[in-house]
């Protein structure tokens, strides 16, 4: 029922972009990869909230270490895990809400993402996912926990030098705009795209206010690529939303 969301495409795009910036601006090293977004970035948070959008059963996780369905909407790792590994950080990014993770586990990378969420708060409501606003509130908490656990200087270093990646937006179309009339009645497609772009800009500003400086937004894959897109996205024929 939930999308693979063109996983291979997303992996290739994210990894190549990050390696590109790793070769340039990130020469000083990245202490942590910090993720926001939807199922393309949720490494298990939805296991710990009340939602139907969970990837904690087979065949999810079939090719993950130990064949474990961790909550990732993937047979194996997500693009964020590959990005983390490519930057010399852990090969699997932990989920913020996992109660077994200490702040020390999370200091070298964390995912705040929640499968089913969108840039639009209404999208998150449809599947009871965490909104981007809630995810950024968790970043604020995380920053406090880092201060307590690691000290002020280390916390500031992690927060200012981390690579923040947003991977979100497909659900706004595939679970919201093209399915329910709530948004379609109010916005034409081009106006909805502007609304989403404004929400994206606001999310980036919120991370900046908390001290983040290296922010990357993943482009959307062609919406008709995943099976759910083929079913729901008839209006997408002939075009793909570019990131
Ligand atoms: C936390 O760790 C304990 C002991 O290893 C395990 O039994 C439990 O299932 C874990 N909880 C979660 C939510 O992973
Ligand atoms: C989502 O909700 C939060 C608070 O409830 C609000 O601050 C934020 O502006 C909303 N985002 C959008 C895109 O409407």
From TrEMBL:
Keywords attached to this entry: Signal
Gene3D superfamilies on file: SGNH hydrolase (3.40.50.1110)
Gene Ontology MF terms: hydrolase activity, acting on ester bonds
InterPro entries assigned: GDSL, GDSL_lipolytic_enzyme, SGNH_hydro_sf
The keyword Calcium is annotated on this UniProt entry: no
Signal peptide: 1-27
Pfam families in the record: Lipase_GDSL
Family: Belongs to the 'GDSL' lipolytic enzyme family.
Listed name of the protein: GDSL esterase/lipase
Lineage: Eukaryota, Viridiplantae, Streptophyta, Embryophyta, Tracheophyta
């Amino acid at each position: 029922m939930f999308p693979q969301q063109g996983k291979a495409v997303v992996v290739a795009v994210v990894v190549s972009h990050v390696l590109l910036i790793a070769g340039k601006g990130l020469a000083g090293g990245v202490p942590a990869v910090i993720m926001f977004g939807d199922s393309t970035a949720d490494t298990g948070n939805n296991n710990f909230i009340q939602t139907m959008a969970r990837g904690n059963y087979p065949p999810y996780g079939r090719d993950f270490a130990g064949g474990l369905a961790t909550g990732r909407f993937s047979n194996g790792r997500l693009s964020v895990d590959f990005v983390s590994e490519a930057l010399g950080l852990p090969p699997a990014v932990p989920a913020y809400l996992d109660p077994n993770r200490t702040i020390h586990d999370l200091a070298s990378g964390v995912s705040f993402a929640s499968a089913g969420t969108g840039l639009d708060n209404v999208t998150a409501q449809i599947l009871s996912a965490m909104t981007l606003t809630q995810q950024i509130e968790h970043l604020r908490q995380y920053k406090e926990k880092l201060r307590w656990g690691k000290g002020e200087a280390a916390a500031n270093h992690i927060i200012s030098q981390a690579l923040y990646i947003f991977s979100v937006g497909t659900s706004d179309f595939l679970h919201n705009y093209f399915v329910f009339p709530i948004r379609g009645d109010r916005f034409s497609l081009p106006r909805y795209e502007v609304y989403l772009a404004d929400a994206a800009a606001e999310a980036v500003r919120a991370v900046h206010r908390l001290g983040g400086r290296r922010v990357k937004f993943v482009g959307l894959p062609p919406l008709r690529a995943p099976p759910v897109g083929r079913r729901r996205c008839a209006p997408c024929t002939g075009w793909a939303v570019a990131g």
